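User: Could you go from structure to sequence for me? I need the amino acid at each position, not a summary. Structure tokens:
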């Protein structure tokens, strides 16, 4: 099935910006064709472009209101896949993949040299091949681009893979695709965006350059990589027992999420066992919860948001930008920048020993279950180190359960350093600066014992008369600016 439209007068077409609902520009022609192939849960569906003009938009969605095809329908459908003109036949568990391809061009000879074919690869896989000529000097003004829509049968709940490659292919996953679990989602393009509304997979690999990655992704392993483009959305890297669909192929990386960009922003909600966020010359903002570890590596950009990590702790580094937000800490927090301030609130949560096999609920902020079989640690230790230069430091501990020992260090230079903690509190303290004052403020029901006391430096211990007893350590250091510990 096909349709053909032609108009006069030439107008430039952006290869990745149009869809079939847009009018064909004057000076351009259009041709639409439909292909069909049988697929099953064992299939991998592939877009394989080639040539200088193989670019445009590819969209994946599930057919709406489609009934499972009958045997009679199968033998009556003619496709380009069968050279014997018999049409595909359906086995149990199979359905029809429909592919609609619209091409638009302003050079008739260029279009005649292009080839579009949907072919079977092996027993199960379906591959859409789009071949176009190589670039030549005589065709610098020529235009040819495609809009491809893959329509999956609604009764297939899974696929082995979904794979695309090739530059300048805007890639869209419709929300209906959430009904299909993909063992492997692999999207690779350049100079074009990637956006999936709600996609479930075992592994999800998303790569582009000079454009954005957006959407919502649920997978055991997530890799989102771009440069000069934003990464925005929700990324849920579920461990196999917490996720949906098959976990085969996830291996030891199950539950991991990595997000990378440069010269743009990361603004995301991430839930994972471990996560790594990387940026240069752009902000990292959002809501990040890890069952184990959070690693954030940035330069020339702010790091801001809400963060919660497990046994592996949180490590945040940036430069020439501030670090801000709320951090739930179970084991450790290390935050470092330069030429920027650090202003954070800290919630100490501590860890629990689980003697039963149940896994913490990833979406319940990594909260460990209560009840029989759970032994709470009463002697846990949390390490907190916050470091900058030429910027102020404010660390405010707003929750500190009984039985947790806190070792907190706040360090800077040429700016103030302050540790705030709610009362009552017991701690050894060390305040040190130069050319400014060292200040300790505690409530009236606390006693202070000094081992050293001067304008620029003081050390010792303060204790509450009626509060919980724990051996905390607070250290605030700077130069050319005051340092303070405030208990209130």
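Assistant: Here is the amino acid at each position, in order:
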């Amino acid at each position: 099935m096909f349709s053909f439209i032609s108009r006069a007068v030439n107008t430039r077409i952006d290869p990745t910006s149009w869809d079939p609902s847009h009018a064909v520009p004057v000076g351009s022609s259009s041709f639409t064709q439909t292909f069909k192939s049988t697929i099953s849960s064992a299939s991998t569906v592939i877009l394989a472009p080639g040539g200088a003009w193989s670019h445009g938009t590819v969209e994946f969605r599930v057919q709406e209101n489609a009934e499972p095809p009958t045997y009679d329908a199968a033998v009556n459908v003619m496709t380009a896949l069968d050279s014997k003109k018999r049409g595909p036949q359906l086995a149990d568990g199979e359905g029809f993949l429909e592919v609609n391809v619209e091409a638009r061009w302003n050079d008739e000879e260029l279009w005649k040299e292009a080839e579009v074919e949907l072919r079977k690869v092996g027993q199960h896989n379906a591959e859409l091949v789009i071949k176009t000529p190589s670039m030549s000097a005589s065709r610098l003004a020529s235009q040819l681009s495609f809009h491809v829509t893959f329509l999956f049968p609604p009764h297939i709940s899974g696929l082995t893979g979904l794979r695309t490659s090739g530059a300048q292919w805007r890639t869209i996953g419709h929300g209906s695709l959430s009904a299909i679990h993909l063992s492997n989602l692999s999207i690779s393009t350049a100079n074009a965006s990637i956006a999936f509304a709600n996609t479930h997979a075992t592994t999800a690999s998303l790569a582009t350059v000079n454009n954005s990655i957006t959407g919502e992704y649920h997978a055991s392993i997530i890799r989102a990589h771009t440069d000069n483009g934003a990464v925005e959305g929700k990324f849920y890297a579920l461990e196999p027992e917490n996720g949906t669909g098959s976990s085969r192929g996830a291996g030891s990386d199950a539950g991991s999420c990595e997000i990378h960009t440069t010269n743009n922003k990361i603004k995301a909600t991430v839930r994972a066992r471990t996560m790594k966020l990387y940026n240069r010359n752009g902000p990292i903002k959002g809501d990040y919860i890890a069952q184990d570890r959070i690693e954030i590596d940035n330069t020339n950009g702010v790091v801001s948001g809400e963060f919660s990590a497990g046994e592996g702790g949180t490590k945040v580094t940036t430069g020439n930008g501030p670090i801000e937000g709320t951090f739930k800490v179970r084991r450790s927090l290390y935050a470092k920048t330069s030429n920027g301030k650090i202003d954070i609130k800290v919630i100490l949560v501590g860890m629990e020993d689980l003697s039963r096999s149940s896994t913490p609920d990833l979406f319940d902020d990594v909260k460990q279950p209560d009840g029989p079989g759970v032994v709470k640690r009463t002697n846990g230790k949390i390490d907190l180190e916050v470091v900058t230069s030429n910027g102020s430091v404010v660390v405010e501990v707003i929750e500190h359960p009984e039985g947790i020992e806190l070792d907190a260090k706040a360090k800077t230079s040429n700016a103030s350093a302050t540790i705030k903690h709610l009362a009552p509190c017991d701690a050894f303290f060390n305040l040190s600066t130069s050319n400014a004052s060292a200040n300790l403020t505690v409530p009236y029901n606390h006693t202070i014992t000094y081992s050293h006391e001067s304008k620029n430096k003081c050390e010792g211990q303060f204790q509450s008369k009626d509060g919980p007893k724990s051996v905390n350590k607070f250290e605030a250091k700077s130069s050319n600016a005051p340092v303070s510990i405030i208990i209130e």
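One structural detail worth keeping in mind: Helices lie at 71-76, 108-113.
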